[in-house]
């Protein structure tokens, strides 16, 4: 029988298959590297787009924060103006009260009583004066109680002064200023 050597043919086939396998592995590696590069580029682009959106939102938020600060400043300015308006309206509505108060004071002071000073703190009044007798001071207090513009009189001090010719009584009365229009509006609010 003749001897045939099949080994070189097998070696050649094995070498050809190894070469084809190397080519296929190289192509697969190139495709994988290409896919990774494309995905990296794609995600990098998405990150850049999102960073752009984030910076846009940060700029818009900063603009809105400035507008909010302006709005708060305007609201505080509005509040101050409203307080001024309320003060002016209160002064406007109460401007005649002092005239009525002085008018009622003049009507309430009887003969023989002389006021030396009058102080007002808010709606509280303090009157200091001189009277010929305690009866005149009592009459003065009665007149104050009848007045629509004054209420709650209280005598704090009565001192007797003797001079060579006259005997007088110094007094201090504390009372509250009242307003008939305020009392009327309170009654309407309750009813």
Describe the structure.
The protein has 191 residues and is α+β, with helices and mostly antiparallel strands. The protein is 65% helix and 21% strand. The chain is built from four helices and four strands. A four-stranded antiparallel β-sheet has the order 1-2-4-3, covered by helices on one side. A hairpin with a 2-residue loop joins strand 1 (113-121) and strand 2 (124-131). Helix 2 packs antiparallel against helix 3 (134-146).
Give the SSE layout:
Elements: H1 7-94, H2 97-108, E1 113-121, E2 124-131, H3 134-146, E3 150-162, E4 167-177, H4 180-190
Antiparallel strand pairs: 1-2, 2-4, 3-4
Helix pairs in contact: 2-3
Question: Which labels suit this protein?
Answer:
rod-shaped, 4 strands, four-stranded antiparallel beta sheet
Give the structure's gist in a few sentences.
Helix content is 65%, strand content 21%.
> Which CATH class of the domain at 97-183 is shown?
Alpha Beta
Radius of gyration: 51 Å
The N- to C-terminal Cα distance equals 139 Å
- So, the CATH homologous superfamily of the domain at 97-183? General secretion pathway protein M, EpsM
Envelope shape: rod-shaped
Low-confidence stretches: 183-191
């Amino acid at each position: 029988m003749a001897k045939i050597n099949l080994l070189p043919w097998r070696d050649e086939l094995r070498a050809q298959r190894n070469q084809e396998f190397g080519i296929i592995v190289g192509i697969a590696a190139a495709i994988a590297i290409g896919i990774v590069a494309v995905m990296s580029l794609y995600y990098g682009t998405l990150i850049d787009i999102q960073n752009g959106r984030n910076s846009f939102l940060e700029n818009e938020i900063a603009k809105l924060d400035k507008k909010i600060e302006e709005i708060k400043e305007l609201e505080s300015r509005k509040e101050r103006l409203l307080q001024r308006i309320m003060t002016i309206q209160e002064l406007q509505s109460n401007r005649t009260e002092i005239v009525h108060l002085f008018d009622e004071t003049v009507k309430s002071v009887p003969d023989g009583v002389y006021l030396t000073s009058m102080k007002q703190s808010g709606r509280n009044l303090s009157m200091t004066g001189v009277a010929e007798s305690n009866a005149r001071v009592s009459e003065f207090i009665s007149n104050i109680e009848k007045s629509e513009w004054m209420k709650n009189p209280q005598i704090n001090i009565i001192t007797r002064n003797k001079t060579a010719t006259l005997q007088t009584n110094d007094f201090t009365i504390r009372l509250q200023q009242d307003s008939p229009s305020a009392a009327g509006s309170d009654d309407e609010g309750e009813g």
